[in-house]
Amino acid sequence: MESLGIADLKAIVGRIAAIMSEHRDELVRLDGMVGDGDLGLVMEKGFQSARAEAEASTETDAGKLLMRVGMRMAKDAPSTMGTLTATGFMSGGKAVMGRASLGTAEMAAFFDAFVTGIMQRGKAKPGEKTVVDVLFPAAQALKEAADGGQSLPAAFRACRAAAAEGLARSTGAVAQHGRVAYYQERSRGKVDPGSVAGTYIIQGFCDHVEGR
Questions:
Q1: What is the CA radius of gyration of the chain?
Q2: How far apart are the first and last CA of the chain?
Q3: Which domains does the chain have, with CATH numbers?
């Protein structure tokens, strides 16, 4: 697989929706330990709506399809994480508008804009124990793969590994945002629920590209 067409992107959104539903209770449990416990419900609802939007869409522009997915999520899952994820899809989609399919370079551009949009909206940066700790290194891995002329499967293998490493690093960080930040030093060693959700977004893309 050297590029992702409209059918691929629709399948990826559907796969992420299935992953979020599968891990809903886990995300609820993790979020309940440090937050208000609704993350799993928000991610499931947001991506179920995103899947419905993607499946019903007749859009032939890959960027516009991804933007529409984000807009639907923003409408149907207007919580903090839902809004941030929606912003990512809208920002990423805007960056690749005008293309019918997305190769390694375009997916690198999409994820760069995806995480940049989230960082700007959430006023967060790497190292602050948020979803950015997963998405930023994943985006960097895709950029490096694109700069090196790597295939899409190779790029997403690197992306998956970088996301996993980012999650591990974030667990050892001290939270700076959200309710978990109240724990201060006690947040060190606790898994950030948003970062876990971020790995599931990456997983949806990677699984499809790698044919899993």
A1: 16
A2: 13
A3: 6-209 (1.25.40.340)
CA distance 143 to 111: 9
Determine how many CB atoms are found less than 10 A away from the CB of residue 42. Answer: 25
**0.85 exceeded by the pTM?**
yes
- DSSP 3-state percent helix, strand, coil across the chain (nearest 5): 75, 0, 25
The helix (H) or strand (E) run that includes residue 26 is helix 24-34
Query: What is the Cα–Cα distance from 163 to 134, expressed in whole angstroms?
Result: 5
Q: Are 34 and 188 in contact (CB under 8 A)?
A: no
Residues in the chain: 212
Amino acid letter, 179: R
Planar angle of CA 48, 52, 53, nearest 5 degrees: 115
SS3 31: helix
Rounded Cα distance between 188 and 173, Å, is 5
Tens of pLDDT, residue by residue over 177-204, are: 555 554 554 455 577 889 999 999 999 9
pLDDT digits (tens, 9 = 90+) for 103-126: 999 999 999 999 999 999 989 888
Instruction: Tell me the DSSP string of 87-102.
Output: HHHHHHHHHTTT-SSB
